[in-house]
Design goal:
single chain
């Protein structure tokens, strides 16, 4: 799963690469801002 090769990577590859990066940090930032 190459994050840089989005055009070459399939939707599954892109998802696997996008999922592990932002989600946790985003969730934490959202919770902190919400509180």
């Amino acid at each position: 799963a190459d994050c840089n090769s989005e055009s070459q990577a399939s939707s599954q590859d892109v998802t696997g690469c996008i999922l592990p990066h932002p989600p946790k940090i985003r969730h934490v930032a959202y919770q902190v801002e919400d509180e």
